[in-house]
């Protein structure tokens, strides 16, 4: 059990960006995340004290009860939405995470959207209602150190700037002939996730492989507004899409 608590033994998460640059980052440990949360509780408690002082001053000023209630609600909102607000503003880090040099990122290495931050926050409330400590258990036994909120939002908490490796992944990029010319320029608009789906489909080895290839080819054509092929060779079409994507991605690697 001890190995799960020490940061140097935590798993590393390998991220391949849209330009096929692989970045390996160290997943934060449970202890680091607990310390960050404790620091956040300190800041929240300090702010809550300010809120209570403001409410007491309002009472002593004999304000209308509705006005006092409205003041309390407005001032308490930053406490309720503390994590999604700060994580969105501070690019994935609450004040506690910032001090502990932790950061929330998407599993593909991109910055989370506001929706992802809200999903993490809502799931944290659900985790507390379901079973106190459930989040810690999930972090301990998940290879990427994810709690339920991270799993639902597709995020992971990593050591900020703790890059274990940073290199162009030739295995993912593949060999591109110097004289290669892309067939479908529309492919440049595809995301890495969409390309992963194509790669995974081509790698299938089951009886439904042909069906999935034909189905995916049709979907890709509709997405990119590419007319149906005369040859009807959908597998070759998908392989061409991959080659074109590698071509466009490789042209911006420096």
Polypeptide structure, described:
Helix 3 (82-89) packs antiparallel against helix 5 and helix 10 crosses helix 11 (234-250). This protein has a 4-stranded antiparallel beta sheet with strand order 1-2-4-3. The protein is built from 11 helices and 4 strands, in the order ββααααβαααβαααα. Helices cover 55% and strands 12% of the residues. Strand 1 (12-16) and strand 2 (21-27) form a beta hairpin. It is α+β, with helices and mostly antiparallel strands.
Q: What keyword list fits this structure?
A:
11 helices, 55% helix, elongated
Provide a brief overview of the structure.
This protein has about 250 residues and is an alpha+beta fold. It has eleven helices and four strands.
Unreliable spans:
1-9, 163-173
The main sheet orders its strands as 1-2-4-3
Order of helices and strands: EEHHHHEHHHEHHHH
Beta fraction:
5-15%
SSE order and pairing:
Layout: E1 12-16, E2 21-27, H1 30-60, H2 65-80, H3 82-89, H4 95-100, E3 102-106, H5 114-130, H6 134-141, H7 148-153, E4 155-168, H8 170-173, H9 192-202, H10 209-224, H11 234-250
Helix pairs in contact: 1-2, 3-5, 9-11, 10-11
